[in-house]
């Protein structure tokens, strides 16, 4: 008979990386392939950013932001993100909200207020979590840690394509500038900066298709699970 794993050993695959590195798409496909739950941690930061805009809380007011987050009523259902019971999935994808999310994410109290909500996603049969600090902070004991990279140009081109496909107008030079600014802020902040965990596997996706990237992550996971 198979031994029952203690709760804290529920498998987790962390997929971290910079803006538009493809982590969201890859994480969703890996989760679907393995039948695992999915945590898009960036969506939590985006929901907090949207709420702060609605309640007119300044992006530098760390304590007010943390208090707001503690009171937020957030639900994820069938891929939809809800704030106070209202679907805001499209709204949180706007560049303006992404930039605001990056701005509020620099504060340690904001990050601390989101820790428990993120860890609550760890449920059987397993979790794929994507973000910036999934492997370094939130799930330090993850079964597999992946850090995706891609050149800024490749990422800007992907983001451009995504936006155009959604019918949202975009300018590639503006996207590249915003993306570099966000990379800089996300990786230079003192609280949980964007960086690969010491035990993360790096994967440069500049010239890989989504399918190739997913295949590599699944293969790594299977090799880790077989070994343990
Ligand atoms: O992954 P994303 O673009 O949806 O994330 C939006 C911002 O949220 C990102 O620029 C920085 C912040 N973020 C973070 O600091 N830590 C995470 N785990 C996820 C997102």
Automatic annotation (TrEMBL):
Entry annotated with the keyword Nucleotide-binding: yes
UniProt-listed InterPro entries: Cytidylate_kin, Cytidylate_kinase_dom, P-loop_NTPase
Catalytic activity: CMP + ATP = CDP + ADP; dCMP + ATP = dCDP + ADP
Location of this chain's protein in the cell: Cytoplasm
EC number of the protein: 2.7.4.25
Ligand binding (ATP): 17-25
Keyword RNA-binding: no
Record-annotated Cytidylate kinase domain positions: 13-222
Main location: cytoplasm
One Gene Ontology molecular-function label: dCMP kinase activity
GO cellular component, one term: cytosol
Keywords: ATP-binding, Cytoplasm, Kinase, Nucleotide-binding, Transferase
SUPFAM superfamilies registered for this protein in UniProt: P-loop containing nucleoside triphosphate hydrolases (SSF52540)
GO BP: nucleobase-containing small molecule interconversion; pyrimidine nucleotide metabolic process
Family according to the record: Belongs to the cytidylate kinase family. Type 1 subfamily.
Protein name: Cytidylate kinase
């Amino acid at each position: 008979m198979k031994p029952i794993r203690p709760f804290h050993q529920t498998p987790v695959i962390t997929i971290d990386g910079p803006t538009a590195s493809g982590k969201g798409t890859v994480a969703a496909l890996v989760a679907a392939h393995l039948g695992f739950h999915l945590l898009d941690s960036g969506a939590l930061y985006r929901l907090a950013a949207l709420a702060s805009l609605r309640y007119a809380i300044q992006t530098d007011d760390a304590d007010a932001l943390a208090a707001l987050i503690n009171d937020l009523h957030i639900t994820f259902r069938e891929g939809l993100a809800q704030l106070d019971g209202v679907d805001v999935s499209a709204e949180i994808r706007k560049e303006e909200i992404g930039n605001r999310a990056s701005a509020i994410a620099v504060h340690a109290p904001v990050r601390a207020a989101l820790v428990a909500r993120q860890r609550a996603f760890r449920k059987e049969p397993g979790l794929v979590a994507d973000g910036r600090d999934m492997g370094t902070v939130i799930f330090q004991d993850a079964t597999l840690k992946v850090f995706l990279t891609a050149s800024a140009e490749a990422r800007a081109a992907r983001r451009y394509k995504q936006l155009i496909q959604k019918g949202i107008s975009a300018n590639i030079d503006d996207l590249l500038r915003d993306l570099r600014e966000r990379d800089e802020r996300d990786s230079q902040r003192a609280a949980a900066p964007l960086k690969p965990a010491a035990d993360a596997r790096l994967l440069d996706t500049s010239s890989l298709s989504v399918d190739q990237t997913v295949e590599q992550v699944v293969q790594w996971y299977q090799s880790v699970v077989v070994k343990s």
